[in-house]
Amino acid sequence: MSERRTGWEGNIRVDDRVPRPPAATLADVAAAAGVGESTVSRVLRSHGSFSPKTRERVMAAAARLGYVPNRIAGTLASSGSKLVGIVIPSLANIVFPDVLRGASQSLEADGYQPVIAVSEYDPLREEQSIAAMLAWRPAALMVAGLEHTAQARALMASSGTRIIELMDLDGPSIHLAVGYSNLEVGRASARHLLARGYRRIAYVGHDLAADTRAAKRLAGFEQVLREQGLALQDRETVAAPTSVEAGQAGLERVLARAKGVEAVYFSNDDMAFGGYFLCLSRGIVLPEKLALFGFNGLAIGRVLPQPLSTIRTPRVEIGAAAARLAVAPFTCDPPPDPRLDLGFELVPGGTA
Description:
14 strands
């Protein structure tokens, strides 16, 4: 049995009261659609007789109310669900597995079972995963980032389930948020490169429309450059998923286009490693001829012949802290900003 907690988790009050917004019910949908509950049930299960017009009214009412069907017919709702949903964008590198490791260890210690879905940075796929998770009435739902489709936000806001958003604090959250400021990460990265004397700086990253956190880091980076009367010398965004190969190819294109580049800011360490290996293969001396700066602070970066200059993020700690908030009874009185900022660390390294 999990231990009850009181006190504070960051600036979030933890006690025995658990305020949750009421979830839309089958009766709510029936009233909004002007039909009986049995009709709503038949429509949502696609079983039995109903007209196309009735189906349209029911589905519109369900979407408007943010209703998701209870797949377990109240069984877990009455006894207390031991499931916690986690929706992440990728398993392609160690970043999100680290978050999952922290969350899983904490949840399992408290007697809860994590259920995981991967969106592959696809907002519609994330929306579908969120709807599927909420249908099982989990004790809580953890989702990466603050940007979601309008329907996904409506589902989470009206679900009656505690929502914890991860890895970002730059924007409005639905309930709780745990992570760090990506804007400030970008600003700190730019200040470091400028302090080292670099002025002709380029950027190599992946799809900024899909990875909104990377877009925020770049926005913070460019803000600091503008304050100094500077701008990026070149920018290369790779449509393919983030990888070492994508970073290598991206840097190669930048060097072919932009002469005199002194430093390159990468959207993450994976891509920075690709840049590192390209420099090794071409005999480009780091950081004398070219400086490289990454993001995430992956372990391999510390054991390279020249340790990667980067930002280290507390990924395991974020997962563990979010898991504690997911299952702890809490209230906010008076309500502070329900955000837990775990910060980040700039690692000077040897490449910038």
